[in-house]
Amino acid sequence: MEDGTVFKGTAFGAKSNVFGEIVFTTSMTGYQETITDQSFNGQIIVFTYPLVGNYGVNRDDYESITPTCKGVVVKEHARVASNWRSQMTLDEFLKQKGIPGIAGVDTRALTRKIRQAGTMKASIVDAGDTFEHAFDQLKATVLATNQVQQVSTSKPYPSPGTGRNVVVVDFGLKHSILRELSKRNCNLTVLPYNTDAKTILSLAPDGVMLSNGPGDPKDVPEAIEMIRGIQGKIPIFGICLGHQLFALANGADTYKMKFGHRGLNHPVREIATGRIDFTSQNHGYAVVEKTVDTKQLMITHVEINDGTVEGIRHRHYPAFSVQFHPDAAPGPHDALHLFDEFIEMMDAGEEN
């Protein structure tokens, strides 16, 4: 790790040395969805749950086809997978995708270190390398800032349906977002992250979905300008990175969290009703509460543990966003109703 800490373990997955930002997730299940979530682009994922890989990998639970996380750290790697849907072991999957793993690590101690010191650069290296050389390489490593560009689609593509026409702006989207919109019969057009407002408006969509994605929202200034160009004209729903971009487009600020929220058990309160949902989250940046212009935006949700802004709604336009993942793959289904609210918002827009 960047601070000089070393954890030794046993290799599995791909045989390669990697460098990235080390983060932890508290998810007790859903490791396939986690690893294939593009929000983990460039990151080494530490699983706090002690046993990972016991039900293998299947064809249904991908959140992207080509995952871009850097590595996987576990306490115990299950070498035998048992599940009727399993098609391969986690080891085989990681080898296929070129992602190294390391098992036998004290993940509790590692997680405590990340919580105390914050996320930092780290590397997974072969025992044949010297610690001195590994540290020198790690210190010289500069983490990428073009993460959204790495994971967004380069060309538009459709996901046909028979209902509302929805544009999905891909900042590193999870397939489950498309699944939830498709369940509601939406006709989807997925566009690259740098699509401008004029292009989106020319498609005459009923609504626009701003997807999740990796990295610092301030590294995507073109998306902020696009949001300013479409809000008030088309209903908008933002998720995770889309939420942060929506906030920035309306004058709020964002900051890098010490160690972020990553897991399936984050309690969120809806301010208007007092309703508490358990949510799936994966983000290292958040909206600065005191910078939210309350004449333009309303804070709708807060995280119970630390008070983080978890949802905002525009006071004058049909537009809202949430920091968590209502698509819930993996995770609880408490917030799936937000997709229905998006449909209702589009329906109301047509009536008006």
UniProtKB/TrEMBL annotation:
InterPro entries attached to this UniProt entry: Anth_synth/Amidotransfase (IPR050472), CarbamoylP_synth_ssu (IPR006274), CarbamoylP_synth_ssu_N (IPR002474), CarbP_synth_ssu_N_sf (IPR036480), Class_I_gatase-like (IPR029062), CPSase_GATase1 (IPR035686), GATASE (IPR017926)
Pathway: Pyrimidine metabolism; UMP biosynthesis via de novo pathway; (S)-dihydroorotate from bicarbonate: step 1/3; Amino-acid biosynthesis; L-arginine biosynthesis; carbamoyl phosphate from bicarbonate: step 1/1
Region (CPSase): 1-164
Entry's Gene Ontology molecular function annotations: ATP binding; carbamoyl-phosphate synthase (glutamine-hydrolyzing) activity; glutaminase activity
Keyword DNA-binding: no
The protein's Enzyme Commission number: 6.3.5.5
Keyword field contains Cytoplasm: no
Catalytic activity: L-glutamine + H2O = L-glutamate + NH4(+); hydrogencarbonate + L-glutamine + 2 ATP + H2O = carbamoyl phosphate + L-glutamate + 2 ADP + phosphate + 2 H(+)
Stored PROSITE patterns: GATASE_TYPE_1 (PS51273)
Residues annotated as domain Carbamoyl-phosphate synthase small subunit N-terminal: 1-125
GO process terms (BP): 'de novo' pyrimidine nucleobase biosynthetic process; 'de novo' UMP biosynthetic process; glutamine metabolic process; L-arginine biosynthetic process
Keywords of this entry: Amino-acid biosynthesis, Arginine biosynthesis, ATP-binding, Glutamine amidotransferase, Ligase, Nucleotide-binding, Pyrimidine biosynthesis
Active site as annotated: C240 (nucleophile), H325, D327
Highest rank taxon of the organism: Bacteria
Residues where L-glutamine binds: S39, G213, G215, L241, Q244, N282, G284, Y285
Subunit structure: Composed of two chains; the small (or glutamine) chain promotes the hydrolysis of glutamine to ammonia, which is used by the large (or ammonia) chain to synthesize carbamoyl phosphate. Tetramer of heterodimers (alpha,beta)4.
Physiological role: Small subunit of the glutamine-dependent carbamoyl phosphate synthetase (CPSase). CPSase catalyzes the formation of carbamoyl phosphate from the ammonia moiety of glutamine, carbonate, and phosphate donated by ATP, constituting the first step of 2 biosynthetic pathways, one leading to arginine and/or urea and the other to pyrimidine nucleotides. The small subunit (glutamine amidotransferase) binds and cleaves glutamine to supply the large subunit with the substrate ammonia.
Protein family: Belongs to the CarA family.
Name this polypeptide is given: Carbamoyl phosphate synthase small chain
Species whose genome carries this gene: Enterococcus ratti
